[in-house]
Design the sequence.
């Protein structure tokens, strides 16, 4: 059966939300690499912690919406 | 009697009816989907769900990469370099510099004796874009000629120009008349 339009909209919204989180992950990864190249472990550590938080948010969201 | 074409059309219609009964196709589906069943029921929903899994996997992969980068950065900071003799203490006069390499042969470094006799050592790489900096005793500053970055020679702090971070400091010690580099402060 084709899903209802409201179902499509909802899953589309979920996709956009996760895409934003993954974009954020890419940014944080770049910041962490910048921290390595600039010999700033504090910067890389902060980026890694935020990255883990964002990943936890994504998985938590997936768990929250799963049936 | 029916012709073979009519029989084939009737069979196709029956197959379509069966599929509709099984819920594989909606009534509004185009006819070609019945003849070319390349899709399955709920295709969009399943694909989005799978794509969501890929996104979660990508998110986890990037998080692992960021943690790896942080671990690497912290390991680098732990590796401060081995003690290394630089030059005899009496061979560097006040308001002068001595160039050496530390912690490896590929890392240019700068040893400075300030006018008051204090010694300082820094990496010679500008924290802006990595150009080589040098000491200008007449202006009492460390200068980067690439983009006119200026650093304070007693602390290594950036005071003018595009650099925002201080020069990397090298711990030094005078022992038995010899100046030693003890490690890099990262």
Sequence:
């Amino acid at each position: 059966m084709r899903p209802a339009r409201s179902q499509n909209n909802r899953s589309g919204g979920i996709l956009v939300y996760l895409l934003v989180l993954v974009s954020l992950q890419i940014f944080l990864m770049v910041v962490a690499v910048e921290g390595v190249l600039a010999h700033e472990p504090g910067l890389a550590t902060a980026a890694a912690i935020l990255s883990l938080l964002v990943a936890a948010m994504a998985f938590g969201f997936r768990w929250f919406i799963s049936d | 009697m029916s012709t073979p074409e009519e029989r084939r059309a009737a069979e196709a219609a029956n197959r379509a009816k069966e599929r509709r009964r099984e819920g594989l196709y909606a009534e509004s589906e185009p006819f070609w989907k019945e003849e070319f069943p390349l899709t399955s029921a709920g295709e969009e929903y399943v694909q989005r769900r799978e794509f969501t899994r890929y996104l979660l996997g990508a998110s986890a992969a990037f998080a692992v990469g960021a943690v790896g980068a942080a671990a690497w950065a912290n390991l680098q900071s732990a590796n401060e370099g081995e003690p290394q003799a630089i030059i005899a203490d009496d061979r560097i006069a006040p308001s002068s510099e001595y160039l050496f390499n530390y912690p490896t042969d590929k890392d240019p470094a700068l040893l400075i004796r300030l006018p008051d006799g204090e010694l300082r050592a820094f990496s010679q790489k500008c924290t802006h874009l990595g150009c080589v900096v040098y000491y200008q005793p007449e202006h009492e500053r460390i200068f980067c000629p690439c983009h006119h970055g200026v650093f304070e020679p007693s602390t290594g702090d950036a005071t003018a120009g595009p650099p925002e971070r201080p020069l990397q400091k090298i711990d030094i010690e005078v022992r038995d008349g010899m100046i030693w580099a003890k490690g890099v402060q990262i």
